[in-house]
Amino acid sequence: MWIHGKYYEYKKDYNHAITFFEKSFSELEKGKHTNEMLRSLDSMGSSHSQVNDNEKALHILNKAYRIMIYDQISGMIRISILVNLGVVHGKLKEFYSAINFLEEARDLNDNLGTFYKSGEIFMALGICNMELKRYKDAKSSYERALKYFKLSENKYHEAGTYTNLGILFSYQKDYYQAELDLKTAINIYKNIHAEEARIMNAQVELARVYYLQEEYIKATSLCKDIIKLNDVNKHKAQAFELLGDINYKLSNIESSLKDYEEAKKILVTQSMPCDYVCKKVAEVYFSLGDYQNAANAYKECF
Fold first, then answer.
1. d(Cα 206, Cα 106) in Å, to the nearest integer?
2. List of E strands, 32-152
3. d(CA 221, CA 218)
4. How far apart are CA 93 and CA 95, in angstroms?
5. Which region, left, alpha or beta, applies to residue 154 given φ > 0 means left and ψ of -120 to 50 means alpha?
6. What are the pLDDT digits (tens) for 5-43?
């Protein structure tokens, strides 16, 4: 049952994977196979996290963690549970506790002389440190993650790390390096035929780098390329939002409002927060002296 679950996990069919992991756990819970039972719980929690059911993932992984501590389980399964707990806490924006779990996993690897999930550990540490504006620590973590992903020839995660490095350099206003890293990420993703959402993520960050350098023609062209793609996701919404920002800067007010409305429409259909886009719409109306529409847009923020 666990192997069936891993097969569907590999296929990114997480709902089917969860079903098999649940069956696996139910069978193993009846016996004394603690390591195998923890493995099933860990996989189940990870799959819930992949579909952004993070509260459920946390509940399952906390259960695995308690059993692990009580039975003094060590080795690879302990590292995996700690990594997944770190990732889930990070997704829930509990960055300090995420770092604690991830550092414990890193230290356990050091003690065991292993490199299990080292790339994922340093990638997640980089994300948490970047969110906390610890840019020096974030850069160091991303660079270490990159080494592990290159050694293991994991092109998918290598591209993801370059994307995050590009975002980091953008935050630090090193736009030249940000552009290089984001272009590298896009090229790798295209070469391995990654799903559109990954490519769109790197492209919208590159467009943002152009926008910050006031290279509006380049930024606009890239945003329009993203919008043409079939996948409808938050990155397409970000492209519309960025087009709205560009048009507002260029005093194309009507186009700006249309772009923001398109961004909002996508976010609503994806059941994602759109308050920050509504706020931008309100600010545009306010700058025009159209206070009634501005008030209506501000109300939508709530």
1. 31
2. none
3. 5
4. 5
5. beta
6. 999 999 999 999 999 999 999 999 888 899 999 999 999
